[in-house]
Amino acid sequence: MKFAALARATALVTAVALVPATTAGLAQVDGRAGPEFAKLFATYQMIKKSYVEPVDDNKLIRGAIDGMLASLDPHSAYLDGSDLQRLETMIDGNYSGLGLSVIMDDGAVKVISPFRGSPAEKAGVKAGDYITHLNGKLIYGGDLDDAVQQMRGPAGTAIQLTIFRAGREEPFDVTVTRGVIELEPVTYKLEKGNVGVITVNEFSRDVGVDVLAAWEAMRKEASGRISGLVLDLRSNPGGSLDEAVALSDLFLDKGQIVSQRGRAKGESINYNAESMFRGEIAAGVPLIVLIDSGSASASEIVAGALQDQRRALIMGQRSFGKGSVQTLLPLTRDSALKLTTARYYTPSGHSVQEGGIEPDILVPQLSDPDLEKRAKFQLRESDLRGHLVNELALEDKALEADKREDPRFKLTSAELKAKGVEDFQLYYALETLRRTSPATVARK
């Protein structure tokens, strides 16, 4: 199996930072675990002998493996042949389905974020929504993989989702027509005032190269020098650790980008600037990075590196808070473990686990009419059952948002729409760059 390629694909279904395993040794079994293995084998024998119906060995062994991994953290998992095959169909970013990043949350399928431009986003599915039924069939308490499989299907076919959304008194149905999901990891646009916007939707292969190409294309398109740049990482669930380093390296010419620390030999690594790209693109150009609660893992690595190195202003909302790295470890030719093997740290030594990246300027998404109601139920790493605990033992009050009213952010979504503002966070970032560009300051 091409585990490096699979590392990219896994980012499409869960918020992770992945590194492929180059070598994988089997850990020695602690001799003291002998009695516990005896319990496991005794349980197996009793089930085989006395359960009311015959049970297949594969089912029991898979259940035991799943149980072990479920006791660790939300991001460790067993992938067998069918799981790996489904991941392979997503390697090229081309598959039929809804375009959702989802996670199992206490037995419910919860949306981390819909992919931009996907059928789900166009139908109005939002981050934080709970999907309770598919075509009228209850999926609560079921298997996440089964739910994902049901949501996929041929382009042009429709599926009815029953959604519970915070702020709504009753669940409601949404019919989504499946489409071919052609994920564009990187998109760009040159806005007025020669302000560029580069959006990174997921950290798949060659994201660093694609962002470099987007920058060069905008430079050619601009009538003069680019006066500012927005790097939009909102609702980006993560992906390849290497590509997070590559993207950060584009904007840094010295210093550390990120470090990871694990127990196994070779899992403690420092990643530094100038390791993937020489020099710094956009040198001297003011840079704003947009993040929100759906910005996870690889996105947080980039935001943390540029924030700690004082290269960018971070704007938006507190990020997801996933500070762990998963490694794909092959078991057989058609099975593997996705195992949490390390924590990562920003250049200042800060772990984003649970707490996430705090923006330098907190900007709510006022364009969202359900903002206040949904904010109470936004899903982050600290909400997941069994999540790794931050070594600093963050208190709940340290994770609470500032509730003080900000006079800059009082417009309603309807008032913004009337002004032609569909995305307030992006609008605010663009206006900030236009007000602070060298040409504007000179005119003042």
List the SSEs and their pairings.
Layout: H1 3-10, E1 17-20, H2 34-50, H3 57-70, E2 77-79, H4 81-89, E3 94-97, E4 100-105, E5 108-114, H5 119-122, E6 130-134, E7 137-138, H6 144-151, E8 158-164, E9 172-177, E10 179-182, E11 186-191, E12 195-200, H7 207-221, E13 228-232, E14 239-240, H8 241-250, E15 256-262, E16 269-272, E17 287-291, H9 298-308, E18 313-316, E19 324-332, E20 335-345, E21 361-362, H10 371-375, H11 396-399, H12 413-418, H13 424-436, H14 438-443
Parallel strand pairs: 1-14, 1-19, 12-13, 13-17, 17-18, 18-21
Antiparallel strand pairs: 2-20, 3-10, 4-5, 5-6, 6-7, 6-8, 8-9, 11-12, 15-16, 15-20, 19-20
Structure description:
This protein is of the alpha/beta class. The chain folds into 2 domains: 89 residues, PDZ domain (Pdz3 Domain, Roll); 242 residues, Alpha-Beta Complex (2-enoyl-CoA Hydratase, Chain A, domain 1), CATH 3.90.226.10. 29% of the residues lie in helices and 25% in strands. It has 14 helices and 21 strands. The strands form 4 sheets. Strands 1, 2, 14, 15, 16, 19 and 20 form a 7-stranded mixed beta sheet that branches. Strands 4, 5, 6, 7, 8 and 9 form a 6-stranded antiparallel beta sheet that branches. A 6-stranded mixed beta sheet has the order 11-12-13-17-18-21, sandwiched between helices. The protein is globular. The termini are far apart. The N terminus is likely disordered.
